[in-house]
Design a protein that fits this description.
Chain A: One of its GO terms (cellular component) is membrane. The complex is a heterodimer of chains A (849) and B (96). Chain A has 25 helices and 11 strands. Chain A has helices at 19-32, 52-74, 93-148, 152-159, 164-167, 185-195, 232-244, 256-313, 335-349, 376-384, 397-411, 415-430, 432-438, 443-450, 452-469, 491-496, 529-562, 566-597, 617-626, 645-680, 686-694, 722-746, 749-773, 779-819, 836-848; strands at residues 10-18, 36-37, 174-181, 201-206, 211-212, 219-220, 222-229, 248-250, 316-317, 323-331, 356-360. The two termini of chain A are 39 Å apart. The relative contact order of chain A is 0.11. Chain B has one domain (6-95). The longest helix of chain B is centred in the last third of the chain and has 46 residues, at 50-95. Chain B is rod-shaped, with a radius of gyration of 19 Å. The chains are: A alpha+beta (849), B mainly alpha (96).
């Protein structure tokens, strides 16, 4: 498996397919998902391609299916998702499918139309029923009033109008009854009052039950109203207003007997309508249930057909029209599989002519294809989102599987928090299949689930570093007996201790042999804990950082070796290694020397190796670069750690400085000389060609675009003018030299975040849980119960989620910037195979959005 | 009868499992008088001799151990309640 460390070897192939067999072959390739087709007629308009009709038909089918799906969802019928993956149907089956969908759609539309008409009818009848019922009350009042005082109550408002009313005897009041939306009532009333100058009498009553609007399906509240008025003019006016307010008017007979009869009639009609409506609903339901069983299956089929025709549109027609020509990128290792798939396709289509697969030579850069599985894909995604690796360059993913969780854990070192994270990750990993089947559209959850293996590893590594730091929710565990003991403890001494105690390794308190594993738990209570931890963690992060960077530079060696790029190795890799080792790795060595040589002691004879004489590494290093002597305390004799330190440091510094012009000038000068030579003897200069092409880390990074355009054919680097080569090399050198300083400092974030995390969790314990634990007496139990849950929630939200996210981002940065800048060019474009799996997944996502 | 929704009962379930484990362990650590927990004891205001100081400390440790176990027991009850609720929620969601 050479493809673990590099992307797979790709080759451009030409594929000749017999017209009849093309469909079946492409379908087989889509199931396989290992072939990326190239568009052979990019100049042709989408509408002028060969299979545009078929694509259009598929689109139409998809639209019908979406309509069906919408209707199914509206009725809340569960759609059966068996997860089965039917093969792309034969082209002739397409007609059957089309017919089925057509029939279903028409049926459904008809049913819907009928249902809507019926519902409208039903609504009208219900409204009429309500009117009859409500107005009954008004009429009852009316008649009651009329019996008592025939003229008074009804004519009062009209008196002022004129005296004609009186002359004609008892007034004949007309009325209209109708139904209106409840929220329109106030405006309606005001309008009536104004337009008719107060000469109408409006009574209204609310309908308690909401009615269903047939066109929208919403539940609306309505009111019944009845308007009394006199005269035809007013009648037309009132009717106009009713129309304007979209009120529905219903005829309402005046005689009580007629009304009663009408009410009876309405009731029977409603009942009839109810049965018909029920039957319509049943029918609709049956149709939809039948469709729901197959809809997912149909979707898959239609999308596959569409994808196949889309792909066929990319092909070229042969002159004889008998065969289709395709060009595709193929992983070399999978050629066998592809041949088999093609043969299957030919057999299925019953064609006798086997398809021909030809390997082609090309100058183009092939796409980058990394084989991944469910474990490595998340790690690969980390780098792909930074920039797709150039073809066949070293893929950092395998190393990242360890370095990423490890650097994360250095910042997130707490056994308790790590355990929570690891449990969460492990749960997702163990429940992988049921969780994946759920297909949640919650974006945050999907991110977590996609990175489940990273989360689990990060959690496990954090548990380890938590044990090293001896932090479990900011408390230390004394598993192996602390090496510190309390000596000469007296009453007076205890009285003097106010807060905490300073641990001094020079005294007898320290037993002399260190704690077996990790940090001594005694430090947790010490006053000088942070001072001690800072120096320890800072050194640790520098050591790890420089190792990490050196590792990155080492990877660039293997990359250049692979591309047979001797020039880059001599002119870049070697000076880079020398520069980094002689300056920065030397600092790491100094740290180890200091750890081994110096120790805390109060004895006179140990003074020169004691705490006061131990030189500061940073000062030593700065003075080494500035070429200055380091001052030392009296009695220490020297500020050097070993004999001949000054000389060695001068030598190292000299070598490192030599490397700068070496990096800056050697490569351009060599290229220039070579060019002059080749101008004299026009020979091949392949070695140089690859030198400039692949060694450039400062190339712009192509983001992971979904439609990465294939780059223009390579092989143009020889034409790059010398000035540009100089400038590139200058930028590259400056970036590396300044970078190694700033990147080394950048790794201090390992210390800073780990300090922040430890302090934050300590503060949380002190400020929250401690308050519950220090409650005196038996009430403490209750207090602990309540406060623990608050503390637990805060621990999860702040320390695990927020701090975890920040540590994750810093780790990502360390990998992208500090690590990748040493070797990664990331100038490739992704391999996008024609695969049904991917197409269906994408289609599903789009639908959910 | 379901009082809590599915999310609340799940949350209660997780916190009470965590609480039972951690508080039971902390109770044990208090019982064996772990120095790391010395800061998390009620303040000792006055003492006459070293022995008196020790006695008060031991007292405080024991009291806190009991308190932790009480809290752990309360979480055990919470666990039972939320597990029951969780089960109810699950069952009702299945039957629909």
């Amino acid at each position: 498996m050479g493809s673990l460390f590099r992307s797979a070897e790709m080759t451009l192939c030409q594929l000749f397919l017999q017209s009849e067999a093309a469909y079946a072959c492409v379908s087989e390739l889509g199931e396989l998902g290992l072939v990326q087709f190239r568009d052979l007629n990019p100049d042709v308009n989408v509408f002028q391609r060969k299979f545009v009709n078929e694509v259009r038909r598929c689109d139409e089918m998809e639209r019908k299916l979406r309509y069906l799906e919408k209707e199914i969802k509206k009725d809340g019928i569960p759609m059966l998702d068996t997860g089965e993956n039917p093969e792309a149907p034969q082209p002739r089956e397409m007609i059957d499918l089309e017919a089925t969908f057509e029939k279903l759609e028409n049926e459904l539309r008809e049913v819907n139309q009928n249902a809507e008409a019926l519902k409208r009818n039903y609504l009208e009848l219900t409204e009429l029923k309500q009117i009859l019922r409500k107005t009954q009350v008004f009429f009852d009042e009316h008649e009651g009033g009329a019996a008592n005082n025939p003229t008074e109550s009804m004519t009062r408002a009209l008196i002022s109008e004129d005296s004609i009313a009186r002359q004609t005897g008892p007034v004949q009041l007309g009325f209209v009854a109708g139904v209106i939306l409840r929220e329109r009532i106030p405006a309606f009333e005001r309008m009536l009052w104004r337009a008719c100058r107060g000469n109408v009498f409006l009574r209204q009553a609310e309908i308690e039950t909401p009615l269903e609007d047939p066109s929208t399906g919403d539940q609306v509240y309505k009111s019944v109203f009845i308007i009394f008025f006199q005269g035809d003019q007013l009648k037309t006016r009132v009717k106009k207003i009713c129309e304007g307010f979209r009120a529905t008017l219903y005829p309402c007979p005046e005689a009580p007997a007629d009304r009663r009869e009408m009410a009876m009639g309405v009731m029977t009609r409603i009942e009839d309508l109810n049965t018909v409506l029920g039957q319509t609903q049943d029918h609709r339901h049956r149709v939809l249930v039948a469709a729901a069983k197959n809809i997912k299956n149909w979707f898959v089929k239609v999308r596959k057909i569409k994808a196949i025709y889309h792909t066929l549109n990319l092909f070229n027609l042969d002159v004889t029209q008998k065969c289709l020509i395709a060009e595709c990128w193929v992983p070399v290792l999978d050629l066998e599989n592809i041949q088999l798939a093609l043969r299957r396709g030919t057999e299925r289509s019953g064609s006798s002519v086997p398809p021909i697969l030809n390997r082609m030579d090309t100058l183009e850069d092939p796409p980058t294809y990394n084989h991944t599985n469910k474990f490595t894909s998340a790690f690969q995604a980390l780098y792909d989102s930074y920039g797709i690796a150039s073809y066949r360059e070293m893929n950092p993913t395998p190393y990242t599987i360890i370095t990423f969780p490890f650097l994360f854990a250095i910042m997130f070192g707490d056994f308790g928090h790590g355990a929570i994270m690891a449990l969460f990750g492990a749960w997702m990993v163990l429940k992988e299949k049921p969780l994946a089947a759920k297909k949640s559209d919650n974006e945050i959850w999907n991110i977590f689930f996609g990175g489940r293996y990273i989360i689990m590893l990060m959690g496990c590594f954090s548990m380890y570093t938590g044990l090293i730091y001896n932090d479990t929710f900011a408390k230390s565990l004394n598993i192996f007996r602390s090496s510190w003991k309390i000596s000469n403890l007296t009453y007076d001494y205890v009285k003097t201790i106010t807060t905490s105690h300073m641990l001094d390794p020079a005294t007898d308190d320290y037993a002399g042999d260190p704690y077996v594993f990790g940090l001594d738990p005694a430090w947790q209570l010490a006053e000088n804990k942070i001072i001690f931890l800072n120096s320890f963690k800072m050194k640790l992060s520098i050591i790890i950082g420089i190792t990490h960077m050196l590792f990155g530079v080492a990877i660039s060696y293997f990359k250049n070796m692979h591309f047979n790029n001797r020039l880059n190795i001599i002119c870049e890799f070697i000076p880079q290694v020398v520069f980094l080792t002689f300056l920065f790795f030397y600092m790491v060595i100094l740290m180890f020397i200091k750890w081994f040589m110096y120790f805390a002691s109060n004895k006179k004879e140990d003074f020169t190796v004691g705490t006061r004489c131990a030189p500061s590494i940073l000062i030593t290093f700065i003075n080494m670069v500035l070429n200055k002597p380091t001052p030392c305390e009296e009695g220490c004799l020297t500020s050097n750690m070993y004999a001949g330190q000054i000389g060695i440091q001068k030598f190292l510094l000299f070598c490192a400085f030599i490397c700068v012009p070496w990096m800056l000038l050697a490569k351009p000068l060599l290229i220039q000389r070579e060019r002059k030579k080749s101008a004299l003897h026009p020979l091949n200069h392949n070695q140089l060609h690859s030198a400039t092409e692949n060694g450039d880390a400062s190339e712009p990074i192509h983001m992971n675009n979904t439609q990465a355009q294939p780059p223009v054919p390579a092989g143009h680097d020889d034409d790059e003018p010398m000035s540009e080569i100089y400038i590139h090399q200058g930028i590259h050198t400056i970036e590396y030299v300044l970078g190694s300083i700033s990147h080394t400092a950048s790794y201090l974030r390992l210390w800073a975040l780990s300090l922040a995390h430890a302090q934050l969790s300590e503060v949380l314990w002190e400020m929250v849980l401690n308050k519950g634990l220090t409650v005196e007496g038996w009430a403490g139990g209750i207090a602990v119960y309540i406060i623990f849950s608050i503390w637990a929630c805060l621990t999860i939200s702040i320390l695990v989620l927020m701090e975890g996210l920040s540590a994750f981002l810093h780790t990502l940065r360390l990998h992208w910037v500090e690590f990748c800048s040493k070797f990664y060019s990331g100038g490739g474009y992704a391999f996008q195979p024609f695969s049904f799996e991917i197409i269906l997944e994408l289609a599903g996502q789009v639908k959910e959005e | 009868m379901a009082i809590c929704g599915p999310k609340l009962s799940l949350c209660g379930l997780i916190i009470s499992v965590w609480g039972v484990i951690q508080l039971a362990l902390m109770g044990i650590f208090y019982w064996v008088e772990a120095v790391a927990l010395a800061e998390d004891l009620p303040e000792i205001e006055e003492y006459h001799s070293l022995d008196d100081f020790y006695a008060q400390m031991t007292n405080g440790y024991q009291q806190n151990a009991y308190n932790c176990w009480i809290a752990a027991l309360l979480y055990l009850i919470t666990l039972a309640v939320s597990a029951h609720q969780f089960w109810l929620n699950n069952r009702s969601s299945l039957s629909v």
